[in-house]
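TA notes, week 10

Several of you asked for a full example with nothing omitted. So below is the full record: structure tokens for the whole chain, then the designed sequence directly under it. When grading your own attempts, check the secondary structure regions first.
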């Protein structure tokens, strides 16, 4: 599916945890997922399909956006105070779409993948552009999450947590600036650090 215009109806069955999407034209499912490696996760019963073929043909992110270290720290501070559920329970993940100064879209879920998917779903439904924007996440940055971000041409991803080694490699290959372990006034820049300035007027 390439556009929200292809969606005719979305039906959510809360009791069974099933979402059905009706499209304007019949969409035949392909057998492609059957030949992919299935990665399961403990994050809210999450599961994702992964294949090296997912990366093939992925266009490198060419954005020239820049952000200062102070802007990273300020955004993460706003992000950490945004989730009331986390402050009460400590049991959810959060994600946000940002520009260099403010949080534009915020969502949370028990699963880190789901929180980011909710951000992209809202952007799709509300025509919110993701180019020249950044993602902040509370969770570990895996290769699957890094690829999701790159597919939406987002040049920067920031996390309070760590990236995996494959995520770092993909970030380098796909031109994504990867920042992790943002705590107070410290952070690690793992890939494409040229977008991050130590200070900026």
């Amino acid at each position: 599916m390439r556009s929200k215009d292809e969606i005719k109806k979305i039906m959510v069955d809360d009791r069974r945890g099933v979402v059905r999407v009706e499209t304007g034209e019949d969409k035949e499912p392909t057998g492609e997922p059957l030949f992919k490696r299935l990665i399961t996760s403990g994050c809210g019963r999450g599961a994702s399909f992964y294949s090296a073929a997912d990366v093939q043909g992925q266009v490198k992110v060419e954005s020239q956006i820049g952000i200062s270290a102070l802007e990273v720290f300020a955004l993460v501070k706003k992000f950490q105070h945004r989730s009331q559920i986390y402050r009460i329970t400590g049991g959810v993940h959060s994600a946000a779409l940002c520009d260099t100064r403010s949080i534009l879209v915020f969502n949370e879920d028990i699963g880190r993948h789901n929180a980011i998917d909710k951000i992209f779903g809202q952007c799709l439904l509300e025509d919110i552009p993701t180019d020249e924007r950044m993602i902040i996440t509370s969770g570990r940055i895996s290769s699957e999450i890094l690829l999701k971000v790159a597919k939406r041409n987002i040049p920067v991803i920031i996390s309070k947590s760590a990236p995996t080694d494959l995520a770092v490699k993909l970030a380098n290959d796909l031109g994504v600036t990867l920042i992790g372990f943002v705590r107070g006034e410290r952070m690690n820049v793992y890939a494409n650090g040229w977008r991050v300035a130590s200070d900026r007027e």
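Residues 92 and 110 are 4 Å apart (CA to CA). Use that as a sanity check on your answer.
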